[in-house]
């Protein structure tokens, strides 16, 4: 048998067998054996990325450094998965995995295995890996969010090439979907919330009306930039797609936003006007997880470069749950309280006024736009910290700078 087989029948058989074993023995070791068996069945349908690595080393290494390869690994994911499962919304165990490990869609009866693996902190099951994308044959955009249709049981992997080279492991087929945003939208357009918030909770905003879309760009144009390289080991070089998925990390940052800073001194009063121009064709930030926010920080440094004034603006979305309490979890969101997200291609003008710094001939205006660290109720943050091997040093607790401007302003008396 090749990479793929008659998994549907096998799954049903295995599920029944597994149930019987659990009843008869009830012991831990057998449960492990049974998990291993279920995993083998899942990986027959969705071969592990390590199988692809053998021939697609370049792609594998790029993907391995991307956030996608860690989609069920992060302490924040574990802690919020747990919060979800313990909440009244948390009855559907497969919910989070529909995007974080989408093969769960084909194995709903194995949802607990996905939960256990994620909770272990070191899952051996893939999250969003090669087969999870390259077995998608169609995306149904009539659904909200759009739904992928997997083609299992054949040995065909879909991709961008018409003129693919034949190989012994799988058949290939060109599918236009792989150069279209539709492929990405099934996970990136919206996430389920407690009440149907509809368009008010779309992650990307009015992306379709952006200049980038009007000029024919797709998600891949920016997030899987074209390069020249080997598509499979030893094949001749051709146009390939970067699989590091630059986003918050990577070079794309330089194309995220521009800052224009103007300072006016009027006697004892100084005004700083900051123009924040988003160059992103969708919301900045995209608002899942719900705590995601971008912050504009202003820092005025007077005598001896000491901060004499500081202020900030926060771009994000705040939600209330069904009881009207603020929540950082979109799965329990019933209402959008406030939405200050930077809309596609938007320029936001912010005005700050403060007393002109004293006892100095000049002062510094420091302006930074950054992705903020995680926020939320203290017990949740403590949980994330406890889940993280590096504790409070985990990247989720660090801001990521997007753009920075510093200007030295002379005071003319
Ligand atoms: C099966 C669901 C799924 C599909 C399909 C999908 N993504 Fe994602 N994507 C995710 C998840 C989940 C994450 C977050 C991973 C993490 O950080 O844990 C993510 C993260 C990303 C990031 C990094 C975001 C950041 O904060 O830096 C980028 C960029 C991205 N995806 C782009 C794409 C593009 C482009 C496509 C289409 C070619 C795509 N994704 C298709 C689920 C998906
Ligand atoms: C409809 C698809 C979808 C669903 C359902 C979904 N997510 Fe996500 N999730 C994403 C995408 C896409 C990203 C990357 C977003 C970005 O970087 O802008 C992401 C990112 C995250 C992150 C930040 C990255 C990380 O791994 O630490 C966390 C935490 C997270 N999701 C938790 C959850 C939890 C918990 C659930 C279930 C309650 C859930 N998600 C359900 C698509 C989804
Ligand atoms: C989030 C979805 C997604 C994931 C995960 C993903 N790919 Fe891709 N892959 C794509 C898309 C979309 C294209 C086409 C991009 C284009 O042409 O603009 C592509 C192109 C390719 C190509 C042809 C171009 C090239 O870069 O060589 C190969 C081969 C490939 N992928 C293999 C893999 C392997 C192997 C993995 C896992 C290590 C993987 N992909 C993970 C979406 C994905
Ligand atoms: C025995 C080696 C081998 C293995 C194993 C292998 N591939 Fe390939 N694959 C190739 C070769 C060779 C090509 C043709 C590359 C080209 O035309 O430049 C290819 C092409 C592709 C393409 C492009 C198809 C198209 O028409 O656009 C995708 C996508 C792909 N492979 C994904 C995968 C995934 C996912 C896995 C793991 C499940 C995998 N491959 C395992 C050798 C292999
Ligand atoms: C014209 C280029 C462009 C296109 C097209 C584009 N993006 Fe982005 N995207 C960006 C830039 C620039 C950033 C910000 C990167 C940074 O700050 O480091 C970004 C950031 C992101 C992030 C991470 C930021 C966050 O707030 O979590 C995700 C996820 C993402 N884009 C998904 C998508 C998806 C899905 C599509 C298609 C529907 C898409 N993008 C289309 C340019 C683009």
TrEMBL record:
Organism per entry: Nitrospira lenta
InterPro entries per the UniProt record, alphabetical: Cyt_c-552/4, Multihaem_cyt_sf, Multiheme_Cytochr_ET
Domain Cytochrome c-552/4: 51-134
Keywords annotated in UniProt: Signal
Gene Ontology molecular-function annotations: oxidoreductase activity
PANTHER family the record matches: C-TYPE POLYHEME CYTOCHROME OMCC, DISSIMILATORY SULFITE REDUCTASE SIRA
Protein name: Cytochrome c-552/4 domain-containing protein
């Amino acid at each position: 048998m090749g990479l793929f087989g008659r998994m549907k029948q096998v799954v049903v058989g295995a599920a029944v067998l597994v149930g019987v074993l659990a009843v008869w023995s009830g012991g831990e070791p057998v449960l492990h054996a049974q998990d291993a068996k279920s995993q083998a069945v899942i990986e027959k349908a969705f071969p592990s990325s390590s199988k692809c690595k053998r021939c697609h080393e370049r792609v594998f290494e790029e993907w391995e450094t991307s956030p996608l390869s860690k989609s069920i690994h992060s302490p924040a994911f574990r802690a919020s998965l747990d919060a979800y499962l313990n909440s009244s919304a948390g009855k559907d165990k497969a919910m989070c995995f529909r995007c974080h490990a989408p093969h769960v869609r084909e194995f709903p009866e194995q949802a607990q295995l996905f939960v256990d693996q994620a909770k272990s902190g070191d899952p051996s099951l893939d999250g969003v890996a090669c087969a999870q994308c390259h077995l998608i044959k169609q995306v149904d955009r009539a659904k909200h969010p759009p739904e992928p249709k997997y083609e299992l049981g054949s040995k065909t992997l879909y991709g961008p090439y018409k003129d693919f080279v034949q190989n012994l492991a799988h058949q290939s087929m060109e599918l236009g979907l792989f150069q279209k945003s539709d492929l990405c939208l099934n996970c990136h357009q919206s996430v389920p919330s407690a009440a149907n918030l509809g368009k008010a909770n779309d992650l990307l905003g009015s992306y379709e009306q952006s200049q980038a879309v009007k000029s024919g760009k797709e998600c891949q144009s920016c997030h899987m930039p074209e390069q020249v390289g080997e598509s499979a080991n030893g094949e001749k070089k051709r146009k390939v797609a970067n699989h590091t998925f630059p986003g918050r990390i990577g070079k794309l940052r330089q194309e995220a936003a521009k800052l224009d800073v103007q300072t006016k001194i009027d006697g004892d009063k100084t005004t700083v006007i900051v123009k924040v121009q988003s160059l992103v064709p969708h919301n900045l930030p995209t608002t899942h997880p719900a705590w995601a926010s971008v912050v504009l920080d202003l820092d005025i440094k007077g005598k001896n470069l000491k901060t004499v004034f500081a202020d900030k603006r926060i771009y994000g979305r705040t939600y209330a749950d069904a009881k009207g309490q603020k929540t950082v979890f979109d799965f329990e969101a019933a209402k959008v309280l406030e939405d200050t997200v930077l809309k596609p291609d938007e320029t936001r003008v912010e005005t700050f006024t403060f007393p002109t710094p004293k006892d100095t001939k000049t002062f510094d205006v420091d302006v930074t736009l950054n992705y903020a660290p995680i926020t939320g109720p203290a017990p949740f943050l403590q949980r994330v910290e406890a889940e993280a091997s590096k504790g409070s040093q985990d990247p989720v607790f660090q801001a990521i700078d997007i753009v920075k401007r510093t200007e030295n302003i002379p005071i003319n008396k």
